[in-house]
Amino acid sequence: MPFDPSALTLEMLTAVLGLGVLILGLIVPKGSRHGLGWVSFLGLLGIIGVAVALWGDNRELLDGMYLVDNYALFWKITFLLSAALVILGCMRYVDSIGDQAEYYSITIFATLGMMVMASAGDFITLYLGLELMTISFIILVCFRKLEAKSVESGIKYILLAGMSSAVLLYGLSLLYGLTGSVIMLDVSRIVAMQPVSPALVLAVVMLVAGLGFKISAVPFHMWSPDVYEGAPTPVTAFLAVGSKAASFAILLRLFIAGLPGIWENWAMVIAILAAVTIIVGNLVAIPQTNIKRLLAYSSIAQAGYIMVGLVTATEAGIKGVMFYAFLYVFATVGAFTVAAYFYNITGSDELKDYAGLSQRSPLMAAVMLVAMLSMAGIPPLAGFVGKFYLFKTIVDGYLWLVFIGLIMSMVSVYYYLRVALVMYRDEPIDATPISVSSPVAVTLIVTMIATLIIGVYPGPLSEVVNNAAHTFFLH
Amino acid sequence: MDFPILLTILLAPVAAALIMVFVPKEEHMLHKSIAAVGTFVSLALSLFVYFTYNKEIGGLQFVFGHDLPWIKDLGVTFFLAADGISLPMLLLTNLIGFSAVFASWNINNRPREFFILLMLLITGVMGTFIAHDLFIFLLFYEVVVIPIYIMVVIWGSSKRVTKEYAGMKLTIYLLIGSAFLLAGVIALFVKTTALAGVPDMSFTGMAQVAQQLSRFDQIWLFALMLIGFGSLISMWPFHSWSPDGYAGAPTAVSMIHAGVLKKIGGYGLVKIAVYMLPVGASFWAPYMAVLGIIGVAYAAMGALAQKDLKYVVGYSSVSHMGYVILAVACLDVIGLNGAVANMFAHGVMAALFFSMIGFIYEKTHTRWIPDMGGLARQTPRLAVGFMMAAMASLGLPGLVSFIPEFTIFISGFNNFGGLAVIGIAGIIITALYVLRAGANTLFGPPRPEYNHLEDIRGPELVPLVVLGTVLVVGGFLPSLLFDMINSGVVPLHAAISDALQIGGKL
């Protein structure tokens, strides 16, 4: 099969955009680099437009090294969308740090890494994408280089991300040693013919641990609250959304497409990991007083819910994962954008300073409330439908997990409502109204409306995701 | 297509809320008027629907959206419809919603937010009663939880328990209950889809398949739904949120919560759990009856021990819901008629009770019965409303709740014999605590410090007039209510007894 570069249109466009922003940053004088955010945002919107137009293009490149299908495309749209929303919401924040060109272009390269991961059909491509993403994030996490907390979390992230990448790589190399191939489709055929060996078990353990770190599943979650707290808030948002979603994208590929036979034995392990993640994430979130740490633990719990879709390894499960990841983008970006903007204005991430936010800025309070209730799965918000899709896949055989998931999501309402209480009931200490600048307002309104619409009328999105999940099994 | 009247009823309060968003927040009177108009439109239209519903034909009428696919792969359609069971509940919601606006007429602390939340709350409750699709039902079912929480913590009162505690207890109890319900619904969906091959979440479509589920499946699914709906209807032992929650809540929330929201539990039990899982229902019926009777007796005793008016009514509502659960457990036409009718009757009565207590508290700043003295002399109109609700509560003939309770006793005695007698005896305790509360609040020696109190007047009279009229009319013309309910219960009962016969053979 001849190599057709047109299959890589999206990746090339994204790389061009990233480099272009970097070069523009050199040309444009320091004072007027504000516009770079708009260039990046509009560029990403344009790429999303191209991506939508490419829908339905399903093929394999280079004997399955690179898989172009609706499954990957849906993930790519998810990443691009979250990058665009995060950039739109954080321009003022970035202006306050400076170095706009580097910030935006590294964000775009992180997105490119995620896109490569979504399409990866072999271990090398997978690792390439993963490292592109991780290294970009390392730079972003310590972007406020004069601030001790940011640098500290950057170092934590380097060390732990490096460790987890090493573990993952070791798992992949074991698999290569066992099968003699790095192409997932070949690996799946060869593994199916062999008896289960201890080395294979070890390889799977390594893969679960390595990727478990990326999605911050308990017990590999320790890094995430610290890093989330220390990183610049928009980076935290992108880390929570993009990095997690991309890791789920390859987790599905690696295990369900690459190791289908062995997965049946691992379903129970994943179910238990999901349960523990949901329980720990939600319970530890309860005593948090810093909004970013609270959101960090809540995002751990969210990863637990998404893992539920992995358990059965069916099309319905994949659909549940993708659907939930997509709506999770809006809730998370909404919540973190509020936190970032609030920090910008007041310099605080403490929950108690959110007192009376509903009077100071009704929009920010409303977006925070909607985002949190969506994460808790209260209808008519998107999270409810998402959980319905996820949990319906495991009714047969894992009913206990349904109970844990649903009851813990009701428990999570407790700490989400505590935030609501502070914002809506308490009188503000400093009653000056917060005027929300228009790009941020647009981000907030988009996330809120999307969360509402997906919740009230999920039909169209659901059909798109069904189609995307269906193409997963075409190769 | 006909005029979508149910949709209009549903959206009138939403429209009012949207208008309020754009009205400056200082315009207190304007907000109240908009809320009043919004709820009045719903009330007028639901009265129209109630009286034009064709009881001869019965079944689903005013159907909307059954061909409007909502989520294809879950088989969800935006199906709104009314039948003889949902119409009384819809009417009740609007009667209480309209009265609640006037019961909150004196709220001057952030009225815009209050009335917007109230409108959303009323919409959510109405939606559950006219949705004919399980998914849409769930959407509306949980929508109400968050407005209630916010309303309790901002406008509630911290007399005996803090309002934060009351609000959180209310919310968490109901959400945990709904987690069980949700698990039940998801499992039911998966099982019925596997059996039928195509997903269908409309009540009728799902019920036809669900009724064929195996005995074992029906039993555990029904148990989950019983926990979910049972905690909403405050079935013993899941009732403890109810007195605390009502005590902390502002008047309008207590009215709507005790008046209609609780009834979603009973409505769901009849129209979803019993209808879809008749075999499970017949397995659990004796246990339900026992729980119902314990609820009646236990809560009546509890009410006897209370000195706070809201706690008296809170416990009394748990006790009355015990009768509803007993009636549902009978699983016959008389019992189900009694259950639905009693929910209607208790809704009107409880809402009137809470609105009167709200006014008493607003004027005297206490709910403590020994502090009241003889308010009948000082505020005669308030006393009339209070006593009407009290008399309805003890089932005085001539008021709306007599016939429903009587019906429940007949059916309860037929089905459970001696056990029902304990429940019936509960009526004596009810009489005792209701009369004692009335006597000590209204007819004791008048206290001089209350001489200056103004009686309820103007807009404050609306709850008394509206709900009082329904109490009396429903009492003298019970057929208005019973014919309607019967037209809904008879086909439902026919469906479950058919299913039970087949279920027996398997």
Task: Give a description of the structure.
- Chain A: The chain crosses the membrane at residues 6-28, 35-54, 74-94, 101-118, 124-143, 155-179, 199-223, 235-260, 266-287, 294-313, 325-343, 363-385, 397-417, 438-457.
- Chain A: Belongs to the complex I subunit 2 family.
- Chain A: Keywords: Cell membrane, Membrane, NAD, Quinone, Translocase, Transmembrane, Transmembrane helix, Transport.
- Chain A: It catalyses: a quinone + NADH + 5 H(+)(in) = a quinol + NAD(+) + 4 H(+)(out).
- Chain A: It is an enzyme of class 7 (translocase).
- Chain B: GO terms for molecular function: NADH dehydrogenase (ubiquinone) activity; NADH dehydrogenase activity; ubiquinone binding.
- The complex is a heterodimer of chains A (475) and B (506).
- Chain A is mainly α and 475 residues long.
- Chain A has a domain at 266-475.
- Chain A is built from 19 helices and two strands.
- Chain A has helices at residues 9-27, 35-53, 70-97, 100-119, 123-141, 148-179, 184-193, 198-214, 223-230, 233-258, 260-285, 291-311, 315-346, 357-360, 362-376, 382-392, 399-424, 438-456, 459-471; strands spanning 59-61, 66-68.
- Chain A has a two-stranded antiparallel sheet with strand order 1-2.
- Chain A is globular and about 70 Å long.
- With 506 residues, chain B is mostly helical.
- Chain B has one domain.
- Chain B is 75% helix and 2% strand.
- Chain B is built from 20 helices and four strands.
- In chain B, the strands form two sheets. Chain B has a two-stranded antiparallel ribbon with strand order 1-4. A two-stranded antiparallel ribbon of chain B has the order 2-3.
- In chain B, strand 2 and strand 3 form a beta hairpin.
- In chain B, helix 13 packs antiparallel against helix 18 (418-442).
- Chain B is globular, with a radius of gyration of 22 Å.
- The two termini of chain B are 43 Å apart.
- The model of chain B has no long low-confidence stretch (mean pLDDT 87).
- Classes of the chains: A mainly alpha (475), B mainly alpha (506).
- The interface between A and B is medium-sized, with 33 and 36 residues.
